[in-house]
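Reviewer 2 asked us to include a model.

Predict the structure of this chain.
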Amino acid sequence: MKILVDIVHPADVLFFLNPIRRWQQGGHWVSVVSRRKDVTEQLLEAFAVEHRTISNAGTGLFSLGVELLRRDIALLGFARQFRPDVMVGFGGVAISHVGKLMGVPSVSFYDTERAPLQHRLTLPLISHLHVPASYDGPIARNRTSRFPGTKDFSYLHPDNFAPVRSIAEAAGLATGCPNYFIRLVGWQANHDIGYAGWSEATLVRFVDHLGARGRVHISSELPLTAALDQYRYRGRVEHVHHLLAYCAAYIGESATMAGEAALLGVPPVYAADDRRCYTDELAAQGLLWKVPRVEYPALCDAVHAAEALDEALWSRRLSAYMAGKINLADYVVQAVLGQVRPHTGTGMR
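Predicted model (structure tokens):
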């Protein structure tokens, strides 16, 4: 069977890494198309995943529209050569368009409720959509399935990942003091339109506060100023979760990394005026602290509250959260294989 995987974000690399390996081990032919965004290509290369980059990430609504048109055209050309039996992606905009044109099933996994443009472009055309059980956003009517857990369970499930301290130390983990991980995003995705990041003054003041307590590591989609560059994460891109797992707290604008931190046992502070189904679920279970109005006092209070939480209580909450969750990589493998249907001879194949 031929499977085409569309990867447009660094988190997609991690989400599909284990399924790709399992499909290949099962004798299936997997081809990956990628996007030049943040560390997406570097991650693919670090994990030895062959891929072809077919677009550069746009910045702003008009640029994203131009990129989508170019990506659709490039993906159509690639798919007509590869002739996949099924196409899969996270979000799935381009594969929904090309799949419909070619008569090829398209499978999307997604977890962001507040993405109106994405939903309008994808849901009418996608063959099947898979979302977390807690997801409360738009769906593909009569073509949506729900899974127990979140996307993080595809790559950070205990069966798939175990942090290694020596790798964390090689990635910059300081010994003898708390480590703090900050993630800043570029706010350039289609679901980021209308949102902005922290102010520079707040960020500098907060980093100074954490720096007086321990070691600060910053991962940012945008270049850091000279005053903050000393804190930039300098480890290998594929080792960031080893470092994160040994940190005292995660603080950042990335909902994805907040969920990852919680699964790794690290208290996350989600500092953004936004929400996801999984951040709501984690917060409701006392496993995540929200700071929707990002100001210095609120950030400090949230970090102090996270650090003050009793470890035994945290462990009980995390165990309760993980109960009933699945190794999502297994689910992804079967969900995609199960979507393949006999060719009908329709479409542009």
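The domain at 2-156+327-337 is CATH 3.40.50.2000 (Rossmann fold). The radius of gyration is 20 Å. We have added this to the supplementary material.
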